[in-house]
What we know:
With 451 residues, this protein is an alpha+beta fold. It has seven helices and 34 strands. The chain folds into five domains: 180 residues, no CATH class; 79 residues, no CATH class; 83 residues, no CATH class; 48 residues; 34 residues, no CATH class. The strands form nine sheets. Strands 1, 2, 3, 4, 5, 6, 7, 15, 16, 24, 27, 28, 29 and 30 form a 14-stranded mixed sheet that branches. This is Phage minor structural protein.
Amino acid sequence: MVHFFRTDGQGSPAFFEPRLTKAEQTEGLDATFTLELTAVGAVDISKGDHLIYKDDTGAVRDVVVVSPAVTHDSGGLVTSIVCKDRIAVDAADMFIEDQRNTQPTAVYAILDKLLANTPYQRLDKSTQTATISFYHEDLWTALCALSTATGLEIERTYTVDDSAYTDGTLIATAKIGFVKQLGDSSAEPRRFDYGADLTGVTRTINADPVYTCMYGFGKGLETDNGGYSRKLTFGSVNGGKNYVTIDDAAYARKWGIPDQLHGKNLYRIGTYENQDCEDAQQLLTETKAALATASQPSVTYELDTIVLEDGAATSTGTARGPVHLGDSVAVVDSELGIRLSARVSKRVTNLLTGQTTITLGAQGESFTAQTQSAASSATASATAAIATAQSAVATQADITPTVTRVVQSGDGWDTAATLASVILLEDGLPKIVYGDKEYIFDPETGIFKEA
C-alpha cells in the first residue's frame, strides 16, 4: 500500500490520511508525469501542497497539487486531486530572459547555466553537444527544447535523507539530467505473454496525418536594421527546392491525394520547423528525418500487465518485477498473431493494486505479426532502415544494396524473428544488428558498413 507524505509549499508537514479509491500515476518519455487521486469525503488539501511517496518501482516521487476539487452529489462527498511533477511545475514559473549557445556546447554545460540560481542539481555529465538559444521562455520549456534538440531524454530523481530535513521542514533533494535512453534497453527485453502476466492488448493506428512531402523552416534571418525577415530554408543546398518528398509510385497511390481531373496524385504536405537552426544543410537533414517519421502511419500498443514479484515462476520463465519507463519489452499474443518488441513510452500504474498499463512507442517498424514470414518481416524492416537512413542524407539507391545483403538470408529465420527489434539508433545514426554482426550507417558514403 502506497503511503503519501504531505507538506505545504515550504516543506512543513501536514496531515494526510485520505480513504483513497483511486491512486493513478502516469509517466511518459515526453517528460510528462501526473498523479491523480480520488478519495471518499472532503479531504483537507490545498493547491501548492506537495505529496512525497515511493511508487511501485521504489522510486521517490515529489508532486505538487495543482487542482483539488470536492464534489457533492447523491453518492456523497468525493475529493479529486490532480498533481504534477515538482520540477515541471516549479520550472514552468522560472523565467529565462536570454541565454545563447551559439557554438556547439556540451549539454552538461548548457544545463549548468540553466540550473544556476535554481534549487535543482545536475544529475549527469552528458558530453553530447548542442547549439541552442533560449529567449523569453520559462525554464521547463527550455529543458524540453534541449531534450528535443539533442534527442536525449529527461531524467529526474528525488531523494529524502537527513539533508532534506531542516528546522522541521522536509524538502526532497531534486536532480535533473539528460540521458541517451531512460530504462533498460541493454538487457534481453522483458517478455509479456497473454494469459500469463499480460491481461489485455490494444493495437491503435494513430490519427496523426501521413505526409509525402515536407517543407523545412529554420531561424528567422536577421536584417540590416536588426529585425528578422523570412525564415531559413534549404533550397540553396537542395537544388532550389525548399521541400523534400518521397517519390515512389506505389507509395503515392496509397497515401497521395488523388487528382482525377489531372490524372495524378498530389502530395500531402507537412511542415517542419526548428527556430534554433541556422544551417541550411542541417535543416535539410532534420526535415528528411521528420518526413521519414511522418511518411508512415504510426502504431501504438497498449498493454495491461500483471506485476509479479522478482523470482516468481511463470509459464515463460522467471518474473523480473515491475517494468520501467523506457524499458525494452517483448510481447506475445498468439491468439491475435502478435509478436512485437519496443520500448515503453508511457506507463500508467494503479498504486493501490499494482496493475500497470504500458504503451509501446509509436513506431511503425517496432512490431511484427506472427503470421508474417521471416522474409516479409526482413523486407519490411529493411524498408524501415532505408527510411531511417535517408534522414541522415543518404539516398535509397545508396542504401538498398547493403540492406538487402544484410537481410538476404531472412528465409532461414525462425518465424517469430523480427529484424525491427534490432535496428537501433546510435548517436543519431541507424545501426543494424544481425546475428553477431553489426552494420553501422556511414553518412559520408550513404551505406551501411560492417563494424
